Amino acid sequence: MCNRGLPRLLIGREGGESRELDEGDMRSISGHYGEDEEEDQSKRQIVVGICSMMKKSTSKPMTEILERLCKFEYITVDVFPEEVILNEPVEKWPLCDCLISFHSKGFPLDKAVNYAKLRNPLHINDLNMQYFIQDRREVYRILQEEGIDLPRYAVLNRDPDRPEECNLVESEDHVEVNGEVFHKPFVEKPVSAEDHNVYIYYPTSAGGGSQRLFRKIGSRSSVYSPESTVRKTGSYIYEEFMATDGTDVKVYTVGPDYAHAEARKSPALDGKVERDSEGKEIRYPVMLTAMEKLVARKVCLAFKQTVCGFDLLRANGHSFVCDVNGFSFVKNSMKYYDDCAKVLGNMVMRELAPQFHIPWSIPMEAEDIPIVPTTSGTMMELRCVIAVIRHGDRTPKQKMKMEVRNALFFDLFEKYGGYKTGKLKLKKPKQLQGVVCFCPLPRVLSFRYGHFSGINRKVQLTYLPNGQPKASSEEEGMCAVCMLTQISCCCCVTFDLSVSMADVLKEGPSLLLVLKWGGELTPAGRVQAEELGRAFRCMYPGGQGITQHLHQPESWPNKLDKNSGPKK
């Protein structure tokens, strides 16, 4: 796979065929040179073996990452042929110094475990832990032991040997599993992680039925079914449904100190997969919180999977892990491919270069911070994006003033502590409702402007100890509303707001009432905002989006939030 004109130690693959290993091969791979100790060891290559099903090892993400991994001077990559993995004994498998191996459909995990015991290479992803990842019960058990938040759940084991774990009582709008009650909506997951037929059951108040999730088929990821009763065969995990904002967060780690996160439309919504013009599922990079970064680190270490994907649900101000997928790559992100290859390459060299006496020094950046290619060369990774953003198109702001002396206004002014500063601003709906209840101004505004609404609406009251300055002669005979707002006198006639000039101009304290409203985003403004959001995701150097990374220098073992990645 790598061809730089350097010696390669791809033992076991000549012309695509495996061959028996001789003693010289074993000395070469193990690093024991015997009589050849005088050989120039600076040409020694570290062989990274890729042991997985062909569909995975030849996928675009894997190919992109391996091509970058080969740029390390002392690393050579050897992809194990699928026919060898399936049909040959492990003794005839190619030799390697570092093994990247992971389970998928049809993969002989038992053979891979035996190979690892026989050759004892450096493991990127622990093979024995991959048995646990295939069982959702074990996944949830490990998450609980690590103190990681997950949805409230119960396990229904339909096992004849364990009848005490198979107590299910089903009612119209809830189920009771081994004494634990789950009201609809709740989620029903097969215990096998290979089974993606997850059902969500709805209460009768929402129409009943269930949403049936499955692996994406074309443009569908789920369908609605009128069936409301749970499945009666097989073992399942029942868990509380977490109400999110309609998205799932997918997190991808590369070691405990790096994580990339993306959001996608939840398949539980309508089952329709959102795709771009090229037919790829639309995903957006998201920022992880400090707690979520700690969760990523815990998941990576707990399952001993350097390259690991898991799912987060953000609900009620908290994040819950609902699935751990094991070996997973980000799709269609050149930035991620660069980072992943660099982190893996440095990890391999750090572990094996001293063992094989390879003259390799640890890079200056202790945390393996990737550099970013630009049109003018390379630069350090982006840490922060600062933007000055103005609102989009919106309706005009409106303002209306009036002097008031009604006792109700003074009571309102006192109620909310206006006398402390002499000024009062009312913005909350409950406060505004108090003004609406005893004041006809909203009706005046509706007559003149159509409505009194908008996110910026507010009422201001200012205490005037001596009242407003007296009106000019040309304002004689005008009502209070007309005098200060120039509203047509038909308003006064309609709503009987006329007051005598003696009342308006009488001396004594008063309150200046100011109403402000408008400034609402128009349909054009909404389009502008959405377009800016999409553009903002592509402002990262290289055009791959503002992604989330998790870097933790070795000198900061307990301060994960020191380098929290780029911020928007």
TrEMBL record:
Instruction: Describe the location of the VIP1 N-terminal domain by residue ranges.
Output: 46-135
Entry's Gene Ontology BP terms: inositol metabolic process; inositol phosphate biosynthetic process
Q: Name one GO molecular function term.
A: inositol hexakisphosphate kinase activity
What's the chief localization of this chain?
cytoplasm
Where in the sequence does UniProt note compositional bias of the Basic and acidic residues kind?
Answer: 17-26
Which Pfam families does this one have? Answer: His_Phos_2, PPIP5K2_N
Matching entries from InterPro entries are given as: Acid_Pase_AS, His_Pase_clade-2, His_Pase_VIP1, His_PPase_superfam, VIP1_N
- Keywords assigned by UniProt, alphabetized: ATP-binding, Cytoplasm, Kinase, Nucleotide-binding, Transferase
Keyword Transcription regulation listed? The answer is: no
* Subcellular locations according to the entry: Cytoplasm, Cytosol
As recorded in UniProt, its EC number(s) are: 2.7.4.24
According to the record, the residues making up region (Disordered) are 17-41
> What chemistry does it catalyse, as a reaction equation?
1D-myo-inositol hexakisphosphate + ATP = 1-diphospho-1D-myo-inositol 2,3,4,5,6-pentakisphosphate + ADP; 5-diphospho-1D-myo-inositol 1,2,3,4,6-pentakisphosphate + ATP + H(+) = 1,5-bis(diphospho)-1D-myo-inositol 2,3,4,6-tetrakisphosphate + ADP
User: Which PANTHER family is this protein grouped with?
Assistant: DIPHOSPHOINOSITOL PENTAKISPHOSPHATE KINASE, INOSITOL HEXAKISPHOSPHATE AND DIPHOSPHOINOSITOL-PENTAKISPHOSPHATE KINASE
What does this gene product do? Bifunctional inositol kinase that acts in concert with the IP6K kinases to synthesize the diphosphate group-containing inositol pyrophosphates diphosphoinositol pentakisphosphate, PP-InsP5, and bis-diphosphoinositol tetrakisphosphate, (PP)2-InsP4. PP-InsP5 and (PP)2-InsP4, also respectively called InsP7 and InsP8, may regulate a variety of cellular processes, including apoptosis, vesicle trafficking, cytoskeletal dynamics, and exocytosis. Phosphorylates inositol hexakisphosphate (InsP6).
Write the protein's name. Inositol hexakisphosphate and diphosphoinositol-pentakisphosphate kinase
What is the scientific name of the source organism?
Answer: Cyprinus carpio (Common carp)
Show the taxonomic lineage.
Eukaryota, Metazoa, Chordata, Craniata, Vertebrata
